[in-house]
Amino acid sequence: KDKGIFLMDANGNYSMITKTDVMASNGVIHIIEDVVMPQ
Questions:
Q1: Counting CB atoms within 10 angstroms of each CB, which of 2, 14, 15, 17 has the fewest?
Q2: Is the distance from CB of 3 to CB of 17 less than 8 angstroms?
Q3: Judging by DSSP bridges, how do beta strands 6-8 and 14-24 pair with one another?
Q4: Which residues, other chains included, contact 38 with Cβ-Cβ below 8 Å and sequence gap of 6+?
């Protein structure tokens, strides 16, 4: 995998965090490249 921080969903699919600490109206968010699914 490329360098970076990855999230893994319940199905074993990975998504890379592409941008962190983005200010939004409801707080701070992080941008990821794919959709991750909960269990």
A1: 2
A2: no
A3: antiparallel
A4: 9, 10
Domain that holds residue 34: 1-39
Tell me how many domains the chain contains. Answer: 1
Instruction: Specify the pLDDT at position 1.
Output: 54
Instruction: List, for residues 2-21, the tens digit of each pLDDT value.
Output: 688 999 998 899 999 999 99
Given a contact cutoff of 8 angstroms between Cβ atoms, the answer to whether 10 and 39 are in contact is yes
Alpha-carbon torsion (5, 7, 34, 26), positive or negative: negative
Predicted TM-score (pTM) of this structure: 0.68
